[in-house]
Specification:
By secondary structure, the protein is α/β, with parallel strands linked by helices. It contains twelve helices and twelve strands. The protein starts with 8 loop residues before the first strand and ends with a helix. 41% of the residues are buried.
């Protein structure tokens, strides 16, 4: 049996957020048997489930500002959505075509691109400036010298909280090639930035429930109308034949509620989290704990990556030490697993892996929690 610690502070929201009360409420009747039914069944239970499923599709379209005949595919989360998007994006790639990506992508995107690159796909990456921003001049030169026909770009990075100017980026890509298709991984974005596919001219959009206070194992892939989609699961005709398998209604309604909450509360939520991050930095300074914030002025507190240059302990020791005091943080993306593996994102930016930690802010964190976290860091500094 695990012993409950006297105090716990969860600061790993970028890995998975807690399920919100509103999400739990909409999921409950689909879990306790009050509501059930296969949307493919023709009896009343099935018809009602199909109606709810259709309402969820319409809600997702509304929230991302999409047209009514675009596709929404409910998935098991960001990794599945990214995988299906990349398979669709790369299906029509021909010799001479170039895929544009970046060095900050999620492993589920990077792994697929790396695999295709090894088999002959030509890829190019965005360049970044010293202050963690995209070098737009270098991008112009890159587009001028390459036949970029597709791109896959993350909107908000999960390790450093970097925000990519997606609208400006896509505008440049499509000005160079109006037929280019662009996939955007917005798994970490809805709580902080707009995910308007219409305003940004996005072709495929990845969304993930567990990052926005929805259920784990939930997500969606939005696809612009007229774009042929490559299904990952075949057999049944569910979701217009784009994802075989009976739809998990409890997951779908929970995800949709979480996305709606994120859309409605984004400004207030972002302001609150920014205040908490500023308070954290102020407390570190007050207690004379030297730190480096690995980010820029546009970085969101979803992933507050901090290095402690004067600490003689490595990242894993710091994470473990905080854990023994009931403080839960991470040193890298959870998708890299528990093995010691360098982050390709931090490596690209030259961030010192030795003593960096990701503090990820969320709705249950208070200033008193931060006071406690800093007091433990003070203890660590004396070791």
């Amino acid at each position: 049996m695990f012993t409950k610690k006297n105090r716990e502070v969860y600061m790993d929201y970028a890995s998975v957020a807690t399920i919100s009360k509103s999400v739990s409420q909409v999921m409950k009747p689909w879990l306790d048997g009050s509501l059930f039914g296969n949307p493919s069944s023709v009896h009343n239970k099935g018809v009602y489930a199909k109606e709810v499923l259709s309402q969820c599709v319409s809600e997702v379209r509304r929230i991302v500002h999409a047209h009514s005949n675009s596709q929404v595919i409910f998935t098991s989360g960001g990794t599945e959505s990214n995988t299906q998007a990349l398979h669709t994006l790369l299906h029509g790639v021909k010799d001479g075509d170039v895929l544009l990506t970046s060095g900050i992508e999620h492993p589920s995107v990077k792994a697929i691109i790396d695999k295709h690159a090894a088999n002959g796909l030509k890829t190019v990456e965005l360049s970044y400036t010293d202050d963690f921003k995209i070098d737009m001049k270098a991008l112009d030169e890159l587009l001028e010298n390459n036949n970029v026909t597709c791109a896959s770009i993350m909107m908000v990075n999960n390790e450093m909280g970097l925000v990519v100017p997606i609208k400006k980026l896509i505008s440049k890509i499509k000005k160079n090639n109006p037929e280019a298709l662009v996939h955007v991984d917005a798994s970490q974005a809805p709580l902080y930035v707009s995910c308007s596919v219409d305003a940004c001219n996005i072709d495929l959009l990845t969304l993930c429930g567990q990052k926005i206070y929805g259920p784990q194992g939930s997500g969606a892939l939005w696809v612009r109308e007229g774009l042929g989609i490559e299904p990952l699961f075949i057999g049944g005709k569910q979701q217009s034949g784009l994802r075989a398998g009976t739809e998990p209604m409890h997951q779908i309604v929970g995800f949709t509620q979480a996305l709606d909450d994120a859309y409605k509360n984004r400004d207030e939520y972002g302001t609150t989290m920014s205040h908490l991050q500023s308070y954290f930095f102020d407390k570190l300074t007050t207690h004379d704990i030297p730190y480096i914030h690995n980010g820029n002025s546009e970085t969101v507190p979803l992933a507050c990556n901090v290095s402690f240059p004067d600490c003689n302990k490595d990242s894993e020791y710091i994470v473990s030490f905080l854990n023994t005091h009931g403080i839960y943080v991470s040193s890298r993306s959870a998708c890299m697993g528990s093995v010691e593996q360098e982050s390709h994102v931090l490596k690209m930016f030259g961030v010192n892996h030795a003593n960096q930690v990701r503090f990820s802010f969320g709705e249950k964190i208070t200033t008193k929690d931060i006071d406690y976290v800093v007091s433990v860091l003070v203890t660590l500094a004396k070791k």
